Structures are given as structure tokens and as C-alpha cells.
Amino acid sequence: MKEWYQMNEEEVLKMLDADKNGLSSERAEELLKMNGENVLQESKKKSALRVFAEQFADLLVIILIIAAIISMVSGNVESTIVIFAVITMNAILGTVQHEKAEKSLASLKTLSAPTAKVLRGGVKGEIPSAQIVKGDILLLEAGDLVTADGRILESYSLQVNESSLTGESTNVEKKAVVLEGEPALGDRINMVYSGSLVTGGRAVVLVTATGMETEIGKIAALMNATKEKKTPLQVSLDKFGSQLAIVIMIISAVVFVLSLYRRMPVLDALMFAVALAVAAIPEALSSIVTIVQAMGTQKMAREHAIIKDLKAVESLGCVSVICSDKTGTLTQNKMTVQQVYINHQTMGADALDLKQQSHRYLLYDAILTNDSAIVEGQSIGDPTEVALLEMGRKADIKEDILKEMMPRMEEIPFDSDRKLMSTKYRLHGVPTILVKGALDILLKRTDRIRIGDEVRPITEQDVKEILDKNQAFSEQGLRVLAFAYKEAQANQQLTLDEEDHLIFIGLVSMIDPPREESKEAVAEAKRAGIRPVMITGDHKITATAIAEQIGIFSEGDMAVTGQELDAMSEEELDDKIGKILVYARVSPENKIRIVDAWQRKGAVTAMTGDGVNDAPALKKADIGVAMGITGTEVSKDAASMILTDDNFATIIKAVANGRNVYRNIKNAVQFLLSGNMAGIMAVLYTSLAALPVPFQPVHLLFINLLTDSLPAIAIGMEKAEKDLLSEPPRDPKQGILTKELMTALFVQGGLIAVCTMIAFHIGLSTDSATASSMAFATLTLARLFHGFNCRSRHSIFKIGLTSNIYSIGAFFGGVLLLALVIFVPVMRTLFSVSPLNGYQIGMIALLAFIPTVIIQLYKVMKEHVHA
After folding, report:
1. 3-state helix vs strand vs coil in the chain, percent to 5
2. What count of other Cβ atoms lies within 10 Å of the Cβ of residue 541?
3. Of 325, 371, 538, 614, which one is the catalytic site residue?
4. Residue 767 and residue 536: Cα distance in Å, rounded?
5. Phi and psi for 828 in degrees, rounded to 5?
6. pLDDT per residue over 590-620, tens digit each?
7. Known catalytic residue: 187?
8. Pairing mode, if any, of strands 502-511 and 454-457?
9. 242 or 220, which is more confident?
10. pTM score
11. Quick one: pLDDT at residue 233?
12. pLDDT at 474 over 70
């Protein structure tokens, strides 16, 4: 049997029972059920049982198991039961969290799954790549990721990068030919393969293999599931946690030896050492950080920013420069034709008349040199081309009927170097080349002009009038496309040389108006200490006009073209980079150079992009931001954040969210570590003063894993403060454990420890069990109150007690848990708590509240001084 590349078009279509107009929806559905989705099978996931077992392979859990064994040996069975119950509950929570992460990862994969343009029943449409079946007609163009293997039926200068399969980084030119023999994969020029990238041209392709039958499916029989890397913040906290554990193990060992030296019973000495270890290690820290980040990314997703890489959440808070594309990001990406310049006259788009020959040529050129479509009111393709189709509809031309009557003979697709697109049609029986593109390029290739029914040589006066009109359009922020044509020989092939000696027809000016929210977003960015920079392929005048409208560009700022940028030395660019706020007519290389220059200045740079050519710059930037609507799959793959609404204002919201997530994590860390510091100080004090152990390990577990987790999560839910975007961006080199934070940990932890030890001494006048119970209750309640202190650097009076209902819920939830342990006999027995009288409970409440009163008074005084 012949291979696909050895068959001609008829044989391939017959073999797959396919048609050039595409499969019917019913047949496609049938094939999808029969052969399955077009996806690669993923590697086998860990079972829930294995994930559960892995939760016990942790230094902290091992310490807790040792504590449980010591409790059991010392005859404290209740404590042992509670410790094992807590460990098991923690393992269950870890397993549930892992399963949730797997589900959210799967939903993210679905959300970012590539789509494909197909022809079904003769109608062009876009479907998820998973729904492609064998026999589908795939429509490929520059920027698309090939999502199935296929045989090329029609190729229009198609170029494909197959490095994912062949390792060859050079682009391969593809043709619709029949191959003989058995060429290597890289030499099969009439085939395209899943996983490769269209870098130029376009093609019509018949799908021959999907899913695991594709070449990439054969090479990678099992695709590794995505593994999440730890973020720098998590790495920093893990490192801190492990260092803390080592220090505590040493101190615990010293305390154990000291206790033995003072002739304390071995089991009591062990309980002291274990209590210190359990008090010091912040059990909930890692999971709290993950939960707060996850909530932050979910909030961003609701606000149209999908974070692909968790590191981006942290980096967002440090962004100091945003290099933004103009079209669709700062503007609406809804091009509409404003005015047409033809026969040396300016008129509205609705004034074009098919009966006038020059108007007819312009309309034909605009509609036929066009790869977009409007299907059932839905625009498919480039917004500029869609605007031209809508202009044609105003002149009563249905583009689908026109294209059916006049089939395209040949074409040279648009590319960013030539800035032209040419097609060949038979107009009025004469082979005609229709050209559209950038005026500066097209005018150089023009030697004649059509005025009405007359074609004559173009004069210097004509050129001056055309350039003046173009300048006038550009100054209004309008985008201008030029149109020309020429008659050709019937047998002459359309080549790049044929794009010369053209007849100028006219100009079409369009506007992509700024988004209403862009101006406000730019002002917000500037207030946040972030420099917005516009990078666009448009003319300098057009770009500057839009930049001025939305507040990016003002008097004294600079605008440069890609050409002017190329002429600058590195030193000159470094000197001027802070003043250049608009870059026009840029190349992909220019974008990388701009990002590089900002990074040399130490700026954390975000870069937006939607095209294949933007991918290197998106990778180079600290935060690559891809467009979810207009973006190519390659740009989305290279980016760390995807905007589902392609809106600049969303980036500013994401930056605010990033800053808020980091601030909340820092506050949660302060809450957890200052509370733990209080526990450490209390245990060390009693150890050095040769007093009884103040807490049982089960007490500290109750605090660390139950009552502490609730306020920490509530702190993570704190809304962004109004002044959050008034502060300069955070220095990314600055760690979370700053001198300021460490001071707060010792001072606040010390206050709580002092009040806890006063309660301990009050209880000690009764007996050691009462002392331990009072110390435990005071420490728990004081830490619950302390949750309000850690919500913000401002006082509770300034931020409002009820502005975060979760913190109130967490406080009362914690108090309820504590009340159950103090007042319910069964719980008292389980948690080794002695019965307490009214006076003792009153003292616990008073002493627990004192640290919060002192901290809040200090904050109020500080605010009064700075007011």
C-alpha cells in the first residue's frame, strides 16, 4: 500500500472517503466517536493511595510520629490518638489538595488547548484541536500550530518549522506535489506533522492521522504530565523551614541534655524537647502559601488573566515596565474603515459605487486580496481584512459570492518583511494582479495611477498629494492601506518580480479606536511606578497619535522607528531608553533588544505579543503576556500569562493582584512565624527556669494545624488596599524575611510569650496541669486575636474590622474549637486540658487580648505621626 506522500490528491481523498469541501458535521461526529479525540495519551497518574502514603515522607511528620510514640510510652494514650488523628487528617487534606490541583491543571490544559481552522460542509470554522478527525480539511496560515498530520492539497508559499520532530531549526518549504521513493520525514515536503509550526504562507491540508497515530504520537507514546515547579518564594520558605528545623533539632537536643542534667525523668525531658520542636516548626506554612497563591490565580482567571506559571504571580508584583502591543491590547481591535482616498478625492466608505471602474477595482482588490471571512455574523481572520470585507458589504458586494465567481489563481501571502500581499485573478476576462500593503513600500513599486477611467503615468505631484493625504490620515491615528494592480500575461507565474510597475488605485484609512479603559489603566500604571511603553508595527505618526490619546506619550518623550533603533549603539540606547515610549515599525529582533535594554537597567519587564514572531521576546521578558483571542498558539506557549480579553487594563489588574498576593503571603508568614516564636520563647523560658513543660505536643499541634490555619487563610483573602498601586514596584532580589519582618516576629512573638507565661504562672499556683492548660488557652486565643494585627500594616480602625469577613469567621471558628477543648469533658481528656474556673478563664481572655491592644495602639500612633 502506498504511503500518503506517494499518493496524488484524488487517491488521498478516495482513501479517506473525504471531500475538498470538508466532512459533514454528522460524519465528523461519527468519526470522532469511532476513533477518539485528537489528543496524546498522558502518562499514568499517581493513585490517590500513593499520594496519601507520600504525605508521611516528611521530616515534620516523622518528628510528630516520634512525639506520638513518646506520648504512648509515657502513658499519655489520648495524646497519641490525637497526634495520629492530626497526622492522618493532614495526609487526607494533602491528598485532596493534590487531586484538586490535578483537576485544575486539566481544566487549564483544556482552556489553553489549541484550536484549528477547518472546512466542514464548505463552511470555514474554528474547532478545538481535540475534535479534528481523519478526513478533515485543515486550513493553515502563518502562526498556526499544526495539530494533526496531513497531506497538503494546496500550498501558497507554505513554510513550516518541524524542529519538534526533526531537530532541524530551519524552515521547510512545503508544496502540493507527489513524492516518489521513501524520503526521510524531514524531506516529505507534501506533508505537515502535528507539533510543527507554520512560519509563513498558508495551505489547505487533508488530515491523515490524529492523536497517537501521528508522528509525534509515535515518538512520544506517553506524554509526561506537566510538573509544577516550586516558586522562588516557596523555595525561600522551604529553605527557611529546613534551616529552622535543623536549628530547633539542635536546641531540642541541648534542652533534652540540660533536663537530664537537672535529673528530670527521661520521658519528661523527651516531652520538653519534642514540645519545643513541634512549637518551632510552622506546619501549615507551605500549604498556606500554596492556598493563597491558588486563590490569587483563580481571582486573576476570573479577571481574564490566566497564569500559566505560578512564578509569574510573584514577578507581577515587581513589574516596573510594560511593553505593550497597540492593536487589540490598548485599542479595541475592531478595525472600521473611516475614509477612502480615490481619484484624488476623500470620501466615506459608504460612498463607493460599483458602477465607477476605479471604485470597482479598489473594492475587488480589498475583497479578493483577503483571507478573512464573515460567517453568520462571526468575523474569522485578521481585523483589518474583516474591516475591508465590511466596506465591501456597504457597496452591496457579498464576498463569498464574489470569491466563488472569481477563483484565486495564484498568490504571494503577506509577510512582515515585504509588507505586501499579492493575488492573481481573472477580472473581466483579463489576468490581473491585485496588490495591497504599506504605502511607503507600494509607492516605490508604482509607476502609473488610475484616475476615473483613465490610467496614466504617476507624477511627482500625484505622489506628493498621496503622501500628504497619508500624513493627514496618520495624524488622526488612522491606519492606512494602499491598493494597486496591474494586468498580467495569462501564462506568467506570479513571482516577487511581478510586484513591480503597478497602477495605483487609492488609500483606505481605518481606525482601531482606543479601548475606553486604556487611558485609566495607563494612568494607574504610572501611579504604580510602572512605565508603559507602546511597541507597534504601525507608522510612527499613527502610533504617537494613539499613545498621546491614552496618556503614554507626552511632550518631551521620544518615538523611534525600528530602523532608527537599528542605527543606535547599545550605549546610545541605554542612554535614551527611559525617554523612548513609542516604538513604531518594529521587527521581532527590535522587541528583544528593547526588553534586553530595560533589563540591563534592572527593570522587571512585561512584554505583550500575539504573533509567532513575538515568541522570542515573550520568552526573553520577565513576564511574557500572550493574547488569548488573537494570539497564536506559539505566543501562548512562550508566555507565562494569557489575557483572555486581550486588554491592557487586565495587565494592570493582574499587577495589582500580584502585589496583593505577595503582600498577603508576607502577612500570613508574619502571623504564623510570630505565633511560633511565642511558643518557642515560652518553652525555652520554662526549660531554662527549670519549670514544668508549658505545653503538651498535642496542644501545639492543635494551635499550628487547626486554629492557626483559619486566620492565615483569611489573611490570604484580604482585599487589595487603595494605596497598593501608589507604592513603587517591589525589588525582586529582596527576600521575604526582611529585617523589618524579623523585628516584628521577635517583638510580637515576645509580647504573646510574656502574656502566655503570666497565665502559666497564675495556673502554677494551682498545679502544673492547670498551668499548662492556661498557657495553652492563652497562646491559642492570643494568636487568634493576632490574626487581626497581621491583616495589614495599618491599624484595624483604618482598614475596618468587617472589611474581611473571612477574618471574623476564622476568629470565631478558632474560638469555638478552643471552647470545645476547654469545656467539653471528652475533648478535655483528648487534649490533656484541666478544668478551669471562671477567674482563670477571665485571666486567659484578658492576657490573650493585651498583645493585640499594644500592637494596635502602636499602629494608631504611627498613623497619627505620619498623617
Report:
1. 55, 20, 30
2. 18
3. 325
4. 77
5. -60, -45
6. 888 999 999 999 898 999 887 656 777 888 8
7. no
8. unpaired
9. 242
10. 0.67
11. 62
12. yes
